[in-house]
Amino acid sequence: HLEKEFGLHIKQLGIESIRRNGVVQVRQRLANAGTLVKRDEVRQILHDHFNAEFDARFVGSKDAIDRVPLDCLGPWHQQHAGRHEKLAAQALWMGDVTLPIYAFKDQFSTFVPYMCVLPNVRLSNTIGHVFLDFVEDYGCVPIQLTTDKGSEVGDMIHCHECLHLHAAADYTLDQWPSSRQVQSKHNTPIKGFWHWKWDGEGHSIRQAIFVGRDEGLYNSNNPLHDIHWQVLNWLWSPLVQQHLDEFRLYWNNHRLSSQKKKVLQQEHLHATYGLLQTVFVLLHKIAQLPWI
């Protein structure tokens, strides 16, 4: 009897309408038509006749990104750059107090060569200066720089292209692009790293900042707010940077766990492939490959 009533309901609403609707909507429409059915019975019938549509309606199934193992030639082939704003003004809700972070991460080894706290990570000239500081510290540039599509990376990309052409004129941009801009959701090497950073040090830093707010030591509504937030940024920036340096030291010296589907190096120390001597040896081997 139930199957018959359900068949009549399908004819009335149309198959496409049924496919778009979930259990609750179908059950309500049956009730409006005078057929009272238990939720479990409607669910079972929908699974019997429209099982594939259940997966299509699942929240996480829409616009799902196909994930494939990352691959590259070696260390310093691709450096990923990105910003982290869990300690920025939009996240802290403490007026002008802001402590955003910017970092670089090697795709091959997951080595993090540079990570710093900045007053603003959305200014092109700021990020350009950060990149030049990074290059000055290591005395070299990666073959390719991978970033998000934000406007803040313009100066950095231009500087990197100039340094790329100056340092390795034989590596033409057509064959070896100096940069690549992708959507944030596709810049997974650096975006995935922020999860570990946040779980490792981020929560403790954020909670320490909130102690001052919750106990009234800092009040964004205070008439002296302009002085207070400047003092807070001046005091907290070196403290946050100290925590970033400690976490970067830990990250670069912990051993990677084994992953079944991983193509790149695993079960090694990140810092091993951050050494420039190793990079030079690998780049020399790459240059000897017959297809280059």
Automatic annotation (TrEMBL):
Native species: Rhizopogon vinicolor AM-OR11-026
Domain Integrase core: 106-269
Highest taxon above the source species: Eukaryota
Cited InterPro entries: Integrase_dom_put
Protein name: Integrase core domain-containing protein
